[in-house]
Amino acid sequence: MNHPIETITSPSNPLIKSLKSLERKKGRSETGLFLAEGARLVEQGLEQGWKAETLVITATMAERPHLAALAKRASAAGARVVLAPERLMSKVTHKDNAQSVIASFHQQHRPLDALTKTGDGIWIALYEVRDPGNLGTILRTADCAGASGVVLLETCCDPYSFETVRASMGSIFDMPFANASFDAFNSWRQAQGLSLTAASVNGTARHDKAPFGARSVIIMGNEQAGLPEAIEAQCDTLALIPMRGGADSLNLAQATAIMTYEAWRQRDFT
Ligand code: SAM
Fold this sequence. Notes:
Largest sheet: 7 strands, parallel
GO molecular function, one term: RNA binding
Protein name: RNA methyltransferase
Family: Belongs to the class IV-like SAM-binding methyltransferase superfamily. RNA methyltransferase TrmH family.
Number of domains: 2
Organism: Hyphomonas oceanitis SCH89
Bound molecules: S-adenosylmethionine
Helix content: 25-40%
Domain RNA 2-O ribose methyltransferase substrate binding: 35-111
């Protein structure tokens, strides 16, 4: 590598401590940072214009051409680039086989208006999603289905947790999302002329017969309690995904995928 690189070896180095602190919500809130693991993910973040604070590369891998190129790119974008032994990478990520690259990025907090878009589109609203793995999986699904945005309603889990970022497989960088109260969201979607279809175990329309429309929001309920009645009452359609067998509901992320792909299928996957 022909650009300045520091090497750190001590677990008590302040940088390692501060990266480790990103595991907890408190550490992320105090710094406004979050952690992304793996060269592909970090590349995706930089590609999408997210600002990296620090890039750490496993020292023994640093000469690999794609990692050297990544270091150069991150450094040019203003990130601090350091080398560290694998055991320190594992310490930060709590993984025995840690990725050879980790990076801290600055969080982005978009207003709801940033999700406004003209033309056809599918938006996904999640009411009080609490499981970080579900949230990451849903961001990935929304990205795959070309959704226009994801709205996190009321008190949701942190989109910047390790688990969510991991489960999103990079979609955290690609899929716009915003936090909002239900009331603010509902005014916003009415002003945009977006229909509101709830996925609900109380649904009266079968999901593949529900008229999503060309511009629609799919709203999903909390993992335990589903959607409050007051919110279901404000929806245009309550859609039920048929079930048989003993379980009383599908997993939230799976139900979201079924609904989103159905809405897209109704638009002939265009
Ligand atoms: N006991 C909860 C309830 O009464 O809604 C179950 C919640 S479920 C795990 C989480 C969310 O996934 C639901 O609020 C709903 O949005 C969606 N969901 C799960 N199974 C569904 C189904 N068969 N039809 C429609 N939506 C479903």
